[in-house]
Amino acid sequence: MKNINSAKPNSNLIDVLILIVRVFVGLSMLTHGIPKLEILVENNHIQFMSFLGMGSIFTMVLVVFAEFLCSVLIILGLFTRIACIPLMITMLVACFVAHGSDPYEAKELSVLYFFLYFIILILGSGKFSIDNLMTKKQDVY
């Protein structure tokens, strides 16, 4: 029996944990991205912040790209590290611009998401991902 107090992580459990975190964080962010996508598709008049003078519609498109499309990519484990970058930028903008003058309680969720995406960026998509399947195919050729 392995020492339960061992400092060495079990690589199989790490891959399962990465999968669980990817799916949980991706699905959780979709609850924010899907309503914004619906607003973007259905409404002619969009009321959203204009970041760096880009206009509210273009800003909304960028946020939907991050919160919807990048979340789906993270769930699938496809281009996972690349997909984390727009989401991390979106969370920083949400924290420091959209909620810049708000108390920490209003910023807390975006900070938590930022660090979860940072962890995924560092760890990668793990064994249970399309990225891993693509890497295996490239190794064969």
Short structural description:
This protein is an all-alpha fold and 141 residues long.
Structure description:
This protein is mainly α and 141 residues long. It has helices at residues 11-42, 56-76, 80-98, 104-123, 130-140. It is globular and about 60 Å long. The relative contact order is 0.14. The mean pLDDT is 88.
Strand-pairing-aware structural class? mainly alpha
What proportion of the residues form beta strands (DSSP E)?
A: under 5%
User: How many β strands by DSSP?
Assistant: 0
SSE order, as H and E? Answer: HHHHH
Tally of alpha and pi helices: 5
Task: Tell me the Rg in angstroms.
Answer: 18 Å
| Approximate helicity band | over 70%
What are the SSEs and their pairings?
Blueprint: H1 11-42, H2 56-76, H3 80-98, H4 104-123, H5 130-140
Features:
73% helix, 141 residues, mainly alpha
